[in-house]
Amino acid sequence: MSVSVSPNQDQVYAALRSFLLGVLPAGVPVLRALPNRAAMPSAVPGYVYIQAMLMERLRMPIDTYPEGTEEAPTNYTIEQGIDVPFQIDCYGKHSGTWAGIISTTFEDTYGFNALAPNCAPLYCNEARMIPLTDEEKQYEERWSLDGHVQWNPVVTAPQQYADELELTLKDVNVEFPT
């Protein structure tokens, strides 16, 4: 058996993207950042990029072993709480409004319900204006904020198991004389 994780990082990205699509106007693209050699989307209506920046442990891992099974357990789970800050960059004429909508709904019940069960919002920092110079040397409006989510990945790992033990006693002084 190989090691598996649930939810995985792609599921956390998908949950955040779904949340953003739910609060932004229809037709605003929400994309994962760092697109190599890809042109930026159209400035009209604008667009949003999301990118995880860090993974910071919130607590030590918790091991859980199966109980009450008739068969020998072959795996166990390890859960760890992680704070993952996502940089959320809003581009375009309405990007400041979008940043305000995101920061308002992120820490609200709406954000908790939209991100569950893959992660949960921790907090969102203040939006900041970071203008961008495009390829035509024109300034594009960009508002950026960091949305911190708690991700609790559960890793399922193989384990050894024994339900019988055979002992053989040996006299150490006889077996290993000095």
Q: Give the CATH superfamily.
A: Phage minor tail protein U
Radius of gyration: 25 Å
The largest pleated sheet is described as: 7 strands, mixed
Overall average pLDDT? 91
Counted up, domains total 1
Shape: elongated
CATH topology: Alpha-Beta Plaits
Which class best fits the helix and strand makeup? alpha+beta
| First and last CA, distance | 45 Å
Order of helices and strands: EHEEEEEEHHEEEEEEH
What top-tier CATH class fits best? Alpha Beta
Please count the helical segments: 4
Are there runs of 5+ residues with pLDDT below 50, and where? none
The count of DSSP E runs of length 2 or more, i.e. the number of strands, is 13
Strand proportion, as a percent range, falls in 25-35%
What share of residues is helical? 10-25%
CATH architecture field: 2-Layer Sandwich
What does this structure look like?
The protein is an alpha+beta fold and 178 residues long. The protein has one domain (4-54, 80-153): Phage minor tail protein U (Alpha-Beta Plaits, 2-Layer Sandwich), CATH 3.30.70. Helix content is 21%, strand content 33%. It has four helices and 13 strands. The chain has helices spanning 9-23, 95-106, 109-115, 172-175, and strands at 4-6, 30-32, 47-52, 56-57, 62-64, 75-79, 82-91, 120-124, 128-129, 132-133, 139-140, 142-151, 154-158. The strands form three sheets. Strands 2, 3, 4, 7, 8, 9 and 12 form a seven-stranded mixed β-sheet that branches. A four-stranded antiparallel β-sheet has the order 1-13-6-5, with no helix packed on it. A hairpin with a 5-residue loop joins β10 (132-133) and β11 (139-140). The model has no long low-confidence stretch (mean pLDDT 91).
